[in-house]
Amino acid sequence: MTAKRRGKFSRARGNKSHGWGAKKKHRGTGNLGGKGYSGLGKRTQSRKPSYWANSEYMGSSGFKARGVPDKIISLRDLDKRDAGIINLSSEGYGKLLGSGDVTKKFDVVVAKFTAKAEQRIKEKGGSVKAE
Question: Which of 43, 62, 104, 113 could form a disulfide with 96 if both were Cys (CB 3.0 to 4.6 A apart)?
């Protein structure tokens, strides 16, 4: 039968280094001051511009687009054109807004439009079709 021995972890209790030498060794965070660039003090003065430029270290900045907005046109701008059939999608417009008045008859083809824009164009005898 084997003798019951004390475990090696209990032997380390009361010993601040737990058998790894200096207190700062074997911490998993280096031996200078903590995680990342903390605790480096004077040692990194020459390195600062290089790690300031690294956005991964300093965190992200600026705005992130949540999607590309549609290019818009209003009835006020549409009324400056000649009457007839107008394909706004082929001209790069994505949405027709209802601000302004219409004095001519338009037949408009566009991806999106507001209810007010549709109403005002139909009052003049025109039409709005979604592409």
Answer: 113
